[in-house]
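Section 5: illustrative case.
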């Protein structure tokens, strides 16, 4: 299979690397928007900026510049950008791919979050598949999600992913592309549920980082994860997702990984906020995207529009907006009225 991965951050690189190691012998190209970074990656055979210490397999091709020739041959296009770049990327590639008619390859994204509406706009923050529907509704699309740190996938440590799409051929293409070696890919047709899980767990991982940074204890962390799963599920159901999805890999699975795993960027943001470090400095030191920071407000706004209560996510928004300190956030949550579970 001819696979093109657009976007050479940590996750795009790890996913391209996994596809290039598939025993079927796929032809895999990792496309980077930054030509200098592409050259450096090719010379070092390592993405030192985003995935250091990982040697890229010889079969993995690196490219930059206009991706038209790559897209003309692609049988699967994987978008490795953050949510913020998904709309623009789809705008760029959709005309060429749509022109292939029935031969158009599936397009799948890896991002987890909601789009931030432009400042001052009243439109809701959209999930990735809603962005795709507004930009390129005719393309066969899907999402690859689930509990997966790039570094572990790149080291071929066992990982279970979810391939979600409304289209069975897209799900099948994803299985053929990635299911092998230490990667297991589970199919799911609940795209909304999978995307809500992927977005909300990032916000909740910030909250868990705060909880652990303040050394509130293991009981508090378990309570936070459990109540977080409840609010993730409430929002997901209200948006049309299915309950069982939130009990699966892209729900509780990714929430537990991101909220507790030391490799999580979102959790790291929470740990640093607990030390009262300023957010801009935290984001700069991270060097990678932490989607929870960018989608927390959109999550809470969509929940409010649907009458869904999300107290943990709302508390994270107040903290990110500088309306309270980490300790005040905890105090506010502990002072809430008693409620039924
Ligand atoms: N890193 C992981 O372990 C992991 C795992 C699963 C999912 N994800 C998700 O995948 C997405 C990408 O994460 P990552 O870890 O690769 O991020 P990263 O910070 O390592 O890299 C981001 C990449 O996106 C590119 N980029 C940033 N802004 C852009 C723009 N405006 N236009 C085009 N490209 C742009 C950067 O050049 C870089 O290549 C995120 O939504 C993340 O939540 C990450
Ligand atoms: O490092 P994070 O917090 O962006 O999480 C990475 C993955 O989404 C975990 O599944």
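Designed sequence:
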């Amino acid at each position: 299979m001819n696979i093109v991965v657009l976007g050479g951050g940590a996750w795009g690189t790890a996913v391209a690397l996994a596809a290039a190691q598939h025993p079927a012998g796929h032809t895999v190209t990792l496309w980077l928007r930054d030509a200098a970074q592409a050259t450096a990656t090719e010379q070092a055979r390592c993405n030192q900026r985003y995935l250091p210490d990982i040697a890229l397999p010889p079969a993995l091709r690196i490219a930059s510049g206009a991706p038209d020739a790559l897209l003309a041959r692609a049988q699967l296009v994987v978008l490795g950008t953050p949510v913020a770049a998904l709309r623009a990327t789809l705008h760029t590639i959709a005309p060429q791919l749509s022109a292939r008619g029935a031969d158009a390859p599936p397009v799948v994204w890896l991002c987890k979050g909601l789009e931030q509406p432009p400042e001052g706009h009243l439109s809701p923050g959209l999930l990735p598949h809603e962005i795709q529907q507004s930009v390129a509704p005719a393309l066969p699309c899907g999402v690859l999600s689930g509990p997966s740190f790039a570094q572990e996938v790149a080291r071929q440590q066992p990982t279970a992913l979810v391939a979600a799409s409304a289209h069975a051929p897209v799900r099948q293409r994803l299985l053929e592309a990635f299911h092998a070696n230490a990667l297991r890919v589970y199919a799911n047709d609940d795209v909304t549920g999978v995307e809500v899980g992927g977005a909300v767990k990032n916000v909740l991982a910030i909250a868990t980082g705060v909880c652990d940074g303040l050394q509130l204890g293991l009981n508090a962390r378990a309570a936070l994860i459990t109540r977080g799963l409840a609010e993730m599920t409430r929002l997901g159901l209200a948006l049309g997702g299915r309950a069982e999805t939130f009990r699966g890999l892209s729900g509780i699975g990714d929430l537990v990984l991101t909220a507790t795993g030391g490799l999580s960027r979102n959790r790291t943001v929470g740990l640093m906020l607990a030390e009262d470090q300023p957010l801009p400095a935290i984001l700069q030191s991270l060097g990678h995207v932490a989607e929870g920071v960018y989608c927390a407000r959109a999550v809470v706004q969509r929940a409010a529009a649907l009458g869904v209560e999300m107290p943990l996510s709302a508390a994270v928004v107040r903290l990110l907006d500088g309306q309270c300190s980490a300790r005040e956030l905890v105090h506010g949550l502990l002072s809430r009225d008693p409620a039924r579970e």
